[in-house]
Model the fold of this input.
Amino acid sequence: MKVWHFSEMAYHPAWEELGDSLRNTIPSSVYDPKVGADLYHRYLDEWALCDELGINIMVNEHHTTATCATSVCTIPMAILARETKKVRLLCLGMPIANRMDAVRVAEEYAMLDVISRGRLEMGFVKGAPFEVWPANSNPATLMERFWEAHDLILKALTTHDGPFNWEGKHFHYRQVNVWPRPYQFPHPPIWMTVMSPGSAAEAGSRGYSIASLNTGYLRTPEIFEGYRKAAADAGREAPTERFGYLAIVGVGDTDEEGKRRADQILDYSRTTPRAASQFWFPPGYTSNEITAQMLHNRGPNMIPLRNGGQFEMQFGTVDEFIDAGVAFAGTPDTVFEQIKEFHQHVGGLGQLLMMGQGGHISHDDTVGNLRLFSKEVLPRLSDL
Amino acid sequence: MKRISVAGIELDIDIRGNGPPMLYLHPEHYAHLHEPFINKLAEHWRVFVPRHPGFDGRWPPSQFQNVGDLSYLYLDLLDQLDLVEVTLLGASFGGWISLEMAVRNTMRLKSLELIAPIGVKLGDREKFDFADLSALPDDEVASALFSETIVDLGKFNETQLLGVAQDRQFLAYYGWKPHLHNPSLAYWLHRIDVPIRLIWGQNDGYVKSDYGLHLAERLRDAEFCAIPGAGHYPQIEKLDETISALLVSAGG
Done:
């Protein structure tokens, strides 16, 4: 199993002041650039540390939010492509239906791959519903645009004999001719985030790696199964290394310390639902059947427990998140056993996307978390 | 409701009543709340009410993408049905389609009746002419659309809720960017050479009546009729007054 360290580079100092909504309509006057600069450097230092710890690096992006100050995923990655030497670099990812210039995406990825000497992994993501407004991306045709962007970016990265033209439905170029070409051949590995068996199937039929995001103990097996079935139908292998899962990880010398660290990181999960209700269901973003159900009864975000119960995401305790399979926390032994159990439960987990920093956890605790994980848990995971 | 084929599109169309022909192009929201209005129209006109492609639950052909396409579809519909001296009535999104039709061809039209149409950008680049309902909480959406009526989605049945979701999706499909307008449309308004009536709820919070007055000034032969006590859909909130306004204009 490979492990990646992920952080959203949150601007948590504003969370309390902003109250119920941390997205879309929040004024940037609450952001202090001096505090923000310190935070950027801190988070980058933590990622850079991963190079010596043998933990790979994952960045993402969100827009207009205090939960994630990475508004352009390729910017921290560009810094890390130079600052690190060994680990692999995953952008997960690029919301390609919301990026109106798909060729620019290909250029950014190609440049990152060359600077990092072939350590880039490319994520193509649908993006969260709230992202539609900052991008002003038409949600009714979002997935149509997603797949056209996907086709165009891959053609742009793999065409090496001069320009081609593209006159599609959503993208138009006279001359596509990306320089530099990527370091890896034919192109860096592709990842997609998935939240359902249907989206996993789309990736499975193409043989891409998937990252199932916080989908927990109960939902993840059917998502992975959706991938396997689609891969088999397409005549593709589905090796364990294709299966990634994003979880909060807190390790400590005692169970209490590990749980305390996870609890602080879990403020990432608890802040996720804090968005004004109108931004959850952009028109056409989800199926109309699901939107119709939501119009009838829009409850809080709930996470299922193993005993059939559930808890509210915004207020869950660390023990509830552990039970749900969203967090792995405790001593290295405990965490290893939790991950091993999850790995067996889902039929094989090849990539652990570890949120080792998030919420209110301090720099010292983050470093302690990453170091202890690297020393005591990581070596054992390589055998899984 | 019957289904006919027009320009390769399977079109659901409701045809009711007797009298001079009227083509009614429906607005973006709450189709079933407009039923009483359509019934009233049918007392005075033979009214043709197509359901816009996409709003009918079927995905339009790939090349059918914008309000211009809708306008050609309905111009073809008028040709196919061989209707003449048609009163073209469009409400809100349907008003936008009506304007797009009228700048192209008014040969089959007698008059243009518009209830708070969207589609024409008149304000500057940093001012919405049409409120962005997608970014407003439910209570503000309700007060933008209605003056007094309370629309409780909790009382909608499953089909009606699915309709709401489809309507929202296809308003976005045709009108997400640019936001609910065709940047060129204002330039061609002079081409409309039939009498125009603008009917506006005085308390419209979606498209303000001040905008309506401004639009009337840009049209060659337009009258403006304000309906007190109504929001964006006077045909729901002040049904009799709206019908009266249409009858005055049709007789005038």
